[in-house]
Amino acid sequence: MQSTRVDVISAMKETRAGQPVGRRSFGRRINVSQSLIVGQIALSLLMLVAAGLFVRTMNNLESIQLGFNRENLLLFELDARKAGHKDPEITTFYADLLKRFSAIPGVREATLSNESLIRAGYGLSLSIQGKPASGANRLSVIGPGFMKTMQIPLIAGRDIDERDQPDSPAVAIVSELFAKVNFPDENPMGQHVAIMARPGRPPRDMEIVGIAKDVRYGGLRDKARPVMYIPYNQGFPRPERMTYELRTAGDPLRYVNTVREIVHQADSLVPLANVKSEVQEIDQTINQEIIFAELCTAFAILALIIASVGLYGTISYNVARRSSEIGIRMALGARRGTVVKMILRQVFALAAMGLIIGIPAALGASKLVSSFLFGIKPNDPLAITAAVIILLAAAILAGYAPARRASRIDPMVALRHE
Predict the structure, then answer these.
(1) Under the phi-then-psi rule, with left for phi > 0, alpha for psi from -120 to 50, and beta for the rest, what region is 399?
(2) What CA–CA distance (Å, rounded) separates 411 from 328?
(3) Model confidence pLDDT, tens digit, residues 369-407
(4) Alpha-carbon span 39 to 4, nearest angstrom
(5) Which of 92, 185, 345, 351 has the most CB atoms around it within 10 Å of its CB?
(6) Burial level of 231, CB count in 10 A (0-12/13-18/19+)?
């Protein structure tokens, strides 16, 4: 655009006087180009910091200790009640399916629950030996061998097993946090907990037969909550849609067709829904964080490439214009290393101006996404430091090639050309 506005008469006069054509125009082009490069560097830093924050958030979520083993675990849902199964036959139907799933070659353990641990969680009102009712606890309805299948360690007592039937005494397992909150100064084992079963009916009394380690219940971002586990087949709550958990040897998705065939043989009207591995389910809960991390990383790489290409072009253009000056310096004894340092100083100057603009902008913009972060602060020093190092490394790589080429200029050729 600047070339189209060159004054031809003035350019011809400059040429006759022995001056380079359009020196001012060339100077303006360099200033505009350098300004664009500084802006690109600042934008690149902003994107790199955002990518670092979201990548660290994703890593923090993925590295959370869940309290159970997420690997080699197949999840799927069955709703026999929608297919016409009624009480009490529906309990037998679910139990028979559980036995058939357990017999599949390669299935090490199998159990069921009303919801998966990551998506589970509804409150319950309970009373403990005359203590005030509390609604801060969570209830999970589970099948035999749930703790063993999910690999949740038991601190004391036992797992729910085949002895817990509809006509046997009602029992419950509580989490470690449940025991600390509700039994701070006594042993919960053997204690009785009463929960409100249905309006107008007396509370349901259950004996605590086990204490389990705390797990992430209801989401990765949520803190551990007091949880009580009760058998699904003891009358409360009545079985509705159930989630089966199968611990497999190897990839759990390889067993989907076998599971589908077993369900079809038992009742072709029962739908098989939400088939996935536990790893997939956890990834779905942090899908937003994964998308943010991938998009910001992609845009950061793109911005970095554009800034590097622009910086390379600007420095190369400047080296070409200063060929005679560089030739004279080398003719007077300047070493190649000195020439390289001279060019790289310009690169560092542009990068420094970009960082001066980009760092405050990144610090301000990071506060806008603080609600999406987990386990880190918006002004995370590691993310900012990594972004600065990556940007400086890219700037050095982009500027080194023109600097190296400048150091190899033949002084005699440059002077003859001038």
Answers:
(1) alpha
(2) 6
(3) 888 888 888 889 999 999 999 999 988 888 888 888 777
(4) 25
(5) 351
(6) buried
* pTM, full prediction: 0.73
**What letter represents residue 225's amino acid?**
R
**Tokens for 244?**
């089966």
**What amino acid is encoded at 295 in this protein?**
L
Give the number of residues written for the chain: 418
Nearest to 197 by CA among 168, 159, 230: 230
**Residue 258: which of 57, 36, 101 has the closest Cα?**
101
C-alpha triplet 156, 137, 130: angle, nearest 5° = 80
Q: Which long-range contacts (CB under 8 A, 24 or more apart) does 410-414 make?
A: 410/327, 411/327, 411/328, 411/330, 411/331, 412/327, 412/331, 413/327, 414/323, 414/324, 414/326, 414/327, 414/328
Q: What DSSP letter does each residue of 378-397 carry, written as one string?
A: TT-HHHHHHHHHHHHHHHHH
How far, in Å, are 47, 68, 145 from residue 392 at the CA level?
14, 43, 56
**C-alpha to C-alpha distance for 399 and 314, rounded to whole angstroms:** 9
- Give me the amino acid identity at 337: G
DSSP 163-196: T--TTSPPEEEEEHHHHHHH-TTS--TT-EEEE-
Question: Cis peptide leading into 402, omega within 30 of 0?
Answer: no
Residues 244-303 have pLDDT tens digits of: 999 999 999 999 999 999 999 999 999 899 999 999 998 888 888 888 889 989 988 998
Amino acid 50 reads: A
